[in-house]
Design brief:
TIM Barrel, globular, 8-stranded parallel β-sheet, 11% strand, 14 helices, alpha/beta, 396 residues, single chain
Length: 396
């Protein structure tokens, strides 16, 4: 066998070459191929607590700690998860502009909302069923938030009653509330939160599709067999939106406003027109949110509509934002585009599910440290000094 034949024998076959080319093309972001919902971990081994450096380091630990159904409940987005992915992709479309750095020790991240001083514009978003992540659930999350001087918004679907969560620590709590058609039931729920000392009431008004393709073949979702998969559509509701929320109307804010003695916010706003209507109906603050990609598939990310909402509000009420935030630089970009505060959802859950209360605390500390470093890098020593000039946008 001569040299050329030996080279041919050891080389790629045509089939192997074509497979390699196909794999290369499928991985190209330009083709927007469907992504693996779990992906590959960046590390060959699971890191220990003292090795945690970013919020992303906590996710594989969390995933390894809980059943798949519990992980997917945190991870999934509605339908194809386009909006879920867009919430992360959007941060690649906003660039920070350096203008001469300062010493991070000079950076002050403190701010104020509704007359309450906050050490940081970073807050904990309302997320449900936290006891499935760790036995301490919302109790541990509240203690972690208190230790880091962070305001926590408690979900209306929490594992523990709001008064018990409030008793777990002394830090500030906001109360997230889903509208209830029965006004007497609405009053009862709102009284519970206010009597326990909530600083604000956050009314969630987005329409959630609650159709998660990732879960369709999980036979043990929620710990019990699901049985046959039912169709998302019916003659009375062909769009698959949760029917218990199809009755929402703007006048509901008028109905519950007399029941609320603290500031009332609307969560789930994605347009300037919606923000203006909120203000017309007595809302004291806006949360720009797409429910972490769980409300409407093929909707916009929150960061790309933030300026539209801020312009519509014109400084009349504070504007908060959530959905997709994982890094301090993400937070800085939102502040530069006009947000008054940023809420963390999945990132905080990763910490709680990975290491309990200490994990949630460390996630908050890491992202706050990253925010401080990012502010220093662009030469901003206070939250009030952050403005549009430190970013450029190229939204797709």
């Amino acid at each position: 066998m001569d040299k050329i034949e030996r080279m041919w024998r050891r080389g790629f076959s045509r089939r192997e070459a074509l497979c390699g080319l196909a794999s290369f093309l499928a991985a190209s972001p330009l083709l927007h191929a469907q992504r693996d919902p779990h992906g590959l971990d960046r590390h060959r081994r699971l890191l220990g607590f003292d090795e945690m450096r970013t919020a992303f380091d906590f996710e594989p630990i969390f995933r390894g700690n809980v059943p798949l159904a519990v992980y997917d409940y945190t991870a999934h987005g509605t339908d194809s998860e386009f909006t879920l992915r867009r919430n992360r992709d959007v941060f690649d479309w906003v660039e920070l502009i350096g203008g001469g750095g300062v010493d991070p020790a000079r950076v002050d991240t403190s701010t104020e909302l509704f007359g309450f001083r906050m050490d940081s514009p970073i807050m904990i978003a309302p997320t449900a069923r936290q006891q499935s992540l760790h036995p301490d659930g919302e109790l541990g999350m509240h203690r972690a938030a208190t230790t880091t001087a962070t305001t926590m918004i408690v979900s209306n679907a929490s594992s523990f009653p709001f008064p018990r969560i409030a008793e777990a620590a002394e830090g500030p709590l906001w109360y997230q509330f889903y509208p209830r058609r029965d006004l007497d039931q609405s009053r009862e729920a709102l009284d519970e939160g206010q009597n326990a000392g909530c600083q604000t009431v956050v009314v969630t008004i987005d329409q959630q599709g609650s159709y998660y393709e990732r879960d369709l073949h999980d036979r043990n979702l929620g710990g019990a067999p699901r049985g046959p998969i039912r169709s998302r559509r019916s003659e009375s509701n062909p769009y698959g939106v949760g029917q218990n929320r199809l009755w929402y109307e703007w006048r509901y804010f008028d109905d519950i406003r007399p029941m609320i003695e603290v500031p009332m916010l609307a969560k789930g706003i994605l347009t300037g027109a919606g923000a203006k209507l909120c203000i017309e109906h007595g809302v004291d603050g806006i949360v720009v949110s797409n429910h972490g990609g769980r409300a409407l598939d093929y909707g916009p990310s929150t960061l790309e509509v933030l300026e539209e909402v801020v312009d519509a509000v014109a400084g009349r009420v504070p504007v908060l934002i959530d959905s997709g935030f994982r890094r301090g630089a993400d937070v800085l970009k939102a502040l530069a585009l006009g947000a008054d505060a940023v809420c963390l959802g999945r990132a905080a859950r990763w910490g709680l599910g990975a290491f309990g209360e200490p994990g949630a605390q460390k996630v908050i500390e890491i992202i706050n440290d990253e925010l401080r470093q990012a502010m220093a890098a662009v030469g901003r020593t206070t939250v009030g000094a952050i403005d549009r000039s430190i970013v450029t946008t190229n939204f797709l």
